Amino acid sequence: MTGVGIDWALDWVRRSAAVVAERREDLIDLDRLIGDGDHGENLHRGYSAVLGKLDAAEPATVGDVLKLVATTLMSTVGGAAGPLYGTAFLRGAKVADAAEIDAAGVAAVLAAGLEGVVARGKAEVGDKTMVDAWSPAAAAAQQVADRGGSAPEALRAAADAARAGAESTDPLVARKGRASYLGERAIGHRDPGAESSALLLEAAAAAAGS
Ligand code: ADP
Ligand code: MG
């Protein structure tokens, strides 16, 4: 198997923190248009905290890294996205109890993450939430695993699907979260959580060199 391991997971965290810092203002602007403007700040605070814990961490599995992300995001991000991302990473951590994961493992992590988001937020595809990025991402990774592809290929397919999924939220009316209060005024604006999910999954693919 061509898998991804603990070094990949650590690099994913570092790249995630970097892209969240770089895109902080953009995420704030998106959330200002259809929410309360805190999403970029929330995630930046969360990933800065994760970064601060990384050097002292001694992960034995990919799951250990994901669990550190989960618990830190849960206690630092706040808002709707904190518990949603926290649950996603916690569920993902549970199915990544190995030093290396293959494409099927990547698909399992994303499926578990999606289940976590849905268990918490009860959103469906088309509700204009981060589910619109996570759901196609999990499906795309599973397709790569089914045809015998590698973990980096699964991550690249997931990132591309998440990016398309985030873009698909632009014309939608929101049915969950703060943006749902806006009705048709949410049309034409991207969901901030779907955008941040795409950024994080693009970071995961970049960390795998794909
Ligand atoms: P808040 O809305 O509390 O200010 P954030 O701004 O940090 O929280 O996060 C908003 C994002 O959370 C939304 O863009 C959306 O993607 C996601 N979100 C909100 N509610 C739900 C839900 N019920 N299910 C899935 N995702 C949700
Ligand atoms: Mg907000």
Mind explaining what this structure looks like?
There is one protein chain. The protein is mainly α. It has a single domain (4-207), classed as DhaL domain (Serine Threonine Protein Phosphatase 5, Tetratricopeptide repeat, Alpha Horseshoe), CATH 1.25.40.340. It is 67% helix and 2% strand. It contains 9 helices and 2 strands. The protein has helices spanning 6-22, 24-34, 39-54, 62-76, 81-94, 103-121, 131-146, 151-167, 192-207; strands spanning 4-5, 100-101. Strands 1-2 form a two-stranded antiparallel sheet. Helix 6 packs antiparallel against helix 7. The protein starts with a strand and ends with a helix. The mean pLDDT is 98.
How does the SSE layout of this entry go?
Blueprint: E1 4-5, H1 6-22, H2 24-34, H3 39-54, H4 62-76, H5 81-94, E2 100-101, H6 103-121, H7 131-146, H8 151-167, H9 192-207
Antiparallel strand pairs: 1-2
| CATH structural architecture | Alpha Horseshoe
**Whole-number average pLDDT?**
98
The number of distinct β-strands equals: 2
Number of helices: 9
N to C succession of SSEs? EHHHHHEHHHH
CATH topology: Serine Threonine Protein Phosphatase 5, Tetratricopeptide repeat
SS strand fraction: under 5%
CATH level 1 class label: Mainly Alpha
Report the radius of gyration as a whole number of Å: 16 Å
By CATH, the superfamily comes out as DhaL domain
Give, in spatial order, the strands making up the sheet with the most strands.
1-2
